[in-house]
Amino acid sequence: MPIPILRLALPSPLRRLFDYRAPDSVPRTALQPGMRLRVPFGRREVIGVLVEITDQSDVPEAKLKTALEVLDIQPPLPAALFKLCLWTAQYYQHSLGDTFSWALPTLLRQGEPAEARQERFWHLAEGARVDDPRLARAPRQREALKTIAQHPHGVAHALLAKLQLSKDSLDLLRQKGLLRMEVRRYAPAEHHGSWLLQPELTLNPQQRLAVEAVRAGLGGYQAFLLAGVTGSGKTEVYLQLIHQVLAAGRQALVLIPEINLGPQTLARFERRFNARIALLHSNVNDRERLDAWLAARDGEADIIIGTRSALFTPMKNPGLIIIDEEHDASYKQQEGLRYHARDLAVVRARQENLPIVLGSATPSLESLHNAHSGRYALLKLTERAGGAQPPQFHRLDVRSRPLDSGISGPLQQAMAQTLAAGQQVLVFLNRRGFAPTLLCHDCGWLSQCPRCDARMTLHQRHNELRCHHCGHCERPPSNCPSCRHVDLRPVGAGTERAEERLAVLFPDYPVLRIDRDSTARKGAMDQLLGTINRGEPCLLVGTQMLAKGHHFPRVTLVAILDADGGLFSADFRASERMAQLILQVAGRAGRAEEPGQVIIQTHLADHPLLVQLTEQGYFAFAEQALSERRAAGLPPFSHLALLRAEAHKPGQAEAFLDDACAEAEGLLGALLLGGVELLGPVPAPMERRAGRFRAQLLLQASARAPLHRLMAAWLPLLEQLPDSRTVRWSLDVDPIDLF
Ligand code: ADP
Ligand code: ZN
Ligand code: ZN
Fold it and tell me: Which of 225, 253, 356, 260 shows the shortest CA–CA distance to 309?
């Protein structure tokens, strides 16, 4: 018997597999695709994933190395997920080995056994009561006992700190016989009893139609676009669908956008379900991530909630996939493997024969187009659930009105009225920091980043100029670096400045700023949300972090300080993003009894897109935007791929792209491919970033097939180009940003 040849995907950017001889002692029957092996690679050892077992290799016998060790007895990756990774690598023209690296939990990539670890769990002891008289004078122990009692599956020891439980209190409770500790696998016990912890709401007719439609489709592939205005009860629809899925003995995967929504969403699901919920977002550590991943794979988690990369979580009995806020840009990964989790989720649902629900108040134009063309079933929720009124929009023309740190007089009055009525105000401004630039009033010097074609933002609180593109930081000069005069002025307003000014204008009310800077500290966001939820009148100032999914019942006025950026940007998606952002922010207003109003400050109060959006709503806007895209031949009516390159020397990136372009032209001719246009190369809109010069080549095609055939033949050639190692380059299939 010849020793089998193993074809492995290795963590390398090269788009090819690597051949090794199987370790001597390992019989062929012990090997299966998907297993991990440790192999020598150059001067290092790396961990690869077995893709294929063959008898032949193009590598000469003498050069073929032997794999060192097989790490698994069973492939850690179930077949369905293996297949999804293959599809992903091919579609995004990415190295398969690197695709596995993005898809697998870090610890598996590092060779950790693919098994759940042992963990200590705290439980209420048999017969223990939270009102035990011995705790009358021990409030901390009483609280701790109450908390543990809320977790029927017990509390993992590792989570004590998160639940603010002290080990000392628990030890005392154990001595009193009120708690017990159990050592078992991390995965929580079998599910028992009813799935519901709280009754389901009575659905309104539109919600009922939506639930019925998806329910009828459980058990097979179908994609649904749940387009429901903010507050229309989409989440309630998800919850009731998940209940159906759980009752059928299956699992549900719920993807949520990146920013800060994890704990809130988790809390809502935990209130509803007596189910094992695994949370996979960017703040869980590697061990927790692996445990959650394994629990999902082995059918020991019933509901899996996570951000983008949770898409790659295997499920033993998958029943349903839900993508909440499907339009959200955080589903697209912008580095390495540039996948779109929403798009891949649809592929996965098709591969695993599951229904998928894409939900949003402001669906992406892509998804709407898919609904129009019949690929997705459209489910609409047009009214707010629970009787809340939709907010009223006002476009406030600020042309000739003086702005005080970005705030006009009429807006100030509206704020004062809202606060006086005991309600809350939300001020939206999508710029962090104090001011977007520092300007010399004498000579016109601007605080330019030395490494980027961009200006540095003044952060007054830290007395720093910061570049938001490369992270460069410096102290603001006290004199103009160019003319030495001292008249340096901050220009424009960011959240810090708005916060400062509002605190002066409304000294009797708290002003809370919510942006990436103010919430960087752990727990800061929860603290801010806690204050808001107490419901006293206050002003919230923030970036798009505020726009996403939060529920602020006491906010009745939403102020959008500047809507103009989205109306005259060079990026063809800018107006779509602006519309989504405005409606999402607006959706925070008046979600409870009092009606809300939204004031949009703009210099373009008559702009047709803005008029349409505010007077006729998102769907009218979207129809208009789609017809503009169709006329211009832009996505979703065409398909794009963007080859980006950057290099230290000017001209180097363009030279690489020139060669790439020539190769592509050659291939188009040789393969007789039509309908693909090569646009560029051109310098990137921000040509210099972080000290590198950047350029790009855009591929636009009327159909996917020729574009993908071209790319499949093209990428291996690009890897061979003389500059391919000196120039940093990447391909972005279906880019959502063209810079
Ligand atoms: P969305 O996810 O669309 O923003 P939610 O599901 O969060 O909407 O619902 C908004 C509010 O309406 C929540 O407070 C929710 O409890 C309530 N709600 C949802 N559905 C109903 C219903 N059928 N009857 C009464 N209240 C509802
Ligand atoms: Zn100057
Ligand atoms: Zn910079």
Answer: 253
Confidence at residue 187, expressed as pLDDT on a 0 to 100 scale:
52
Task: Give me the helices (H) in 256-407, please.
Answer: 262-272, 286-297, 341-351, 365-372
Least-confidence region, from 262-266, 492-496, 576-580: 262-266
Does pLDDT of 72 surpass 80? yes
Atom of ligand 1 minimally distant from the CA of 381:
3
The percent of residues in the chain predicted with pLDDT above 90, rounded, is 59
Upper half-sphere CA count for residue 458 (Cβ side, 13 Å): 19
Please give the backbone phi and psi of residue 609, each rounded to the nearest 5 degrees, phi first.
Answer: -65, -40
Looking at the CA of 584, name the nearest ligand: 1
The confidence band for 416, taking pLDDT boundaries of 50, 70 and 90, is very high
The pLDDT of residue 673: 86
Q: Which CATH architecture has domain 389-435+492-630?
A: 3-Layer(aba) Sandwich (3.40)
With a 6 A CB cut-off, is 236 part of the ligand 1 pocket? yes
- What is the distance in A from the centroid of ligand 2 to the CA of 439? 8
Tell me: pLDDT of 118 over 80. Answer: no
* pLDDT higher than 90, residue 716: yes
Backbone angles phi, psi at 108, to 5 degrees: -70, -40
Average pLDDT over residues 158-182: 84
How far is residue 316's CA from residue 297's CA, in Å, rounded to a whole number? 5
User: What CATH code would you report for 639-733?
Assistant: 3.30.70.360
Q: Is 207 in the pocket of ligand 1 (CB under 6 A)?
A: yes
Helices (H), 491-539: 495-505, 524-533
- For residue 430, the model assigns a pLDDT of 83
Tell me the average pLDDT across 392-418.
Answer: 89
538 is an annotated ligand-binding site residue = no
Pocket of ligand 1 contains residue 233 by CB under 6 Å:
yes
Q: Is 70 exceeded by the pLDDT of residue 245? A: yes
Cβ partners under 8 Å of residue 674, min gap 6: 706
The pLDDT of residue 261 is 62
| Residue extents of the structural domains in the chain | 5-109, 122-185, 205-386, 389-435+492-630, 440-482, 639-733
Name the CA dihedral angle for 565, 567, 568, 573, rounded to a multiple of 10 degrees: 90
Q: Kindly report whether the peptide bond that precedes residue 681 is cis, defined as omega within 30 degrees of 0.
A: yes
Same fold, 205-386 and 389-435+492-630: yes
With a 6 Å cutoff on the Cβ, whether 272 touches ligand 1 is no
Nearest to 65 by CA among 6, 2, 1: 6
What pLDDT, in 10s, does the model give residues 431-462?
888 888 899 999 999 999 999 888 999 998 88
Residue with tokens 């956008």: 257
One-letter amino acid at 694 equals R
**pLDDT reading at 593 higher than 80:** no
Answer CATH for 205-386 from 3.40.50.300, 3.40.630.10, 3.40.1190.20, 3.40.50.150: 3.40.50.300
CATH number of 5-109: 3.40.1440.60
Can you tell me which atom of ligand 1 is nearest the CA of 229?
3
443 annotated as a binding-site residue: yes
For residue 444, how far is its CA from the centre of ligand 2 (angstroms)? 6
Cα distance between residue 374 and residue 104, in whole Å? 34
**pLDDT score of 186:** 52
Ligand 1: residue of 235, 357, 583 to mutate (most ligand atoms within 8 A of CB) is: 235
- 440 assigned to a ligand binding site: yes
Q: Which of 236, 271, 326, 591 has the most ligand 1 atoms within 8 A of CB, as the residue to mutate?
A: 236
Q: Is the CB of 105 under 6 A from ligand 1?
A: no
Tokens coding 349: 């649902």
Ligand 2: distance of its center to the CA of 486 in Å?
8
Distance between Cα 253 and ligand 2 center (Å): 57
If you average pLDDT over each of 36-45, 403-412, 579-588, which comes out highest?
36-45
Biggest distance spanned by C-alpha atoms of the chain: 87
> What SS3 class is residue 436?
coil
